[in-house]
Amino acid sequence: MELNTSGLLKNLPEMNPSQAQLELMHARGIPVVLGADAHRPGRVADAYREALDLLAAVGYTEVNVFLDRRRHPIPLAQ
Question: Angle at the Cα of 20 (from 24 to 42), degrees rounded to 5?
Answer without folding.
Answer: 110
